[in-house]
């Protein structure tokens, strides 16, 4: 369960199939929200601590990620490390989010709407 991952390699000429404004190894870590999401203090989703808006991006420090907590039919609950969004979520370091099921290329997965990104300053 969880997001699908894949590797992208450069072609024989050393060119990547995308462009970036970051030099390899010189990017800055950020946490970003790619869909509006409510964050809860408990796995039962009874105590809301914040709402994070699509497009929110904050510089990240050490400690980020998420872990599968439970599922029920078409959705799953993930525990997330809030990192830089902690201040927006009543100072909580961890929270729980409800993630709908999605199907990509014939595979069912759950896309947690808080992701770690690499960008320029």
Structure, described:
The structure is a single chain. With 121 residues, this protein is mostly beta strands. It has one domain. The strands form three sheets. A four-stranded antiparallel beta sheet has the order 5-6-7-8, with no helix packed on it. A three-stranded antiparallel beta sheet has the order 4-1-9, with no helix packed on it. The protein is flat and about 55 Å long. The model has no long low-confidence stretch (mean pLDDT 84).
What tags apply to this protein structure?
single chain; 121 residues; mainly beta; four-stranded antiparallel sheet; three-stranded antiparallel sheet; 0% helix; 45% strand
Q: Could you give a quick summary of the protein structure above?
A:
The protein is mostly beta strands and 121 residues long. It has one domain. It has strands at residues 28-33, 37-40, 48-52, 57-59, 65-72, 75-81, 94-104, 107-110, 114-119.
Helix-strand layout with pairing:
Blueprint: E1 28-33, E2 37-40, E3 48-52, E4 57-59, E5 65-72, E6 75-81, E7 94-104, E8 107-110, E9 114-119
Antiparallel strand pairs: 1-4, 1-9, 2-3, 5-6, 6-7, 7-8
| Number of continuous helical runs | 0
Q: Write out the strand line-up for the largest beta sheet, numbering strands in chain order.
A: 5-6-7-8
| Helical residues, percent | under 10%
Stretches where pLDDT is under 50 for at least 5 consecutive residues are none
Number of domains: 1
Number of strands: 9
Radius of gyration: 16 Å
How large a portion of the residues is in β-strands, by DSSP E?
Answer: 35-45%
Shape: flat
Query: Whole-number average pLDDT?
Result: 84
- Helix-strand topology string: EEEEEEEEE
Biggest β-sheet, characterized?
A: 4 strands, antiparallel
End-to-end C-alpha gap: 33 Å
Structural class, by secondary structure, is mainly beta
């Amino acid at each position: 369960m969880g997001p699908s991952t894949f590797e992208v390699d450069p072609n024989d000429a050393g060119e990547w199939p995308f462009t970036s404004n970051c030099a390899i190894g010189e990017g800055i870590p950020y946490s970003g929200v790619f869909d509006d999401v409510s964050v809860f203090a408990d796995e039962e989703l009874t105590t809301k601590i914040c709402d994070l808006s699509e497009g929110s991006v904050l510089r990240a420090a050490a400690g980020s990620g998420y872990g599968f907590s439970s599922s029920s039919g078409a959705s799953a609950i993930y525990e997330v490390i809030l990192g830089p969004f902690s201040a927006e979520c009543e100072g909580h370091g961890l929270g729980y989010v409800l993630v709908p099921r999605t199907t990509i290329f014939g595979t069912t997965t759950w896309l947690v709407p808080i992701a770690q990104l690499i960008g320029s300053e």
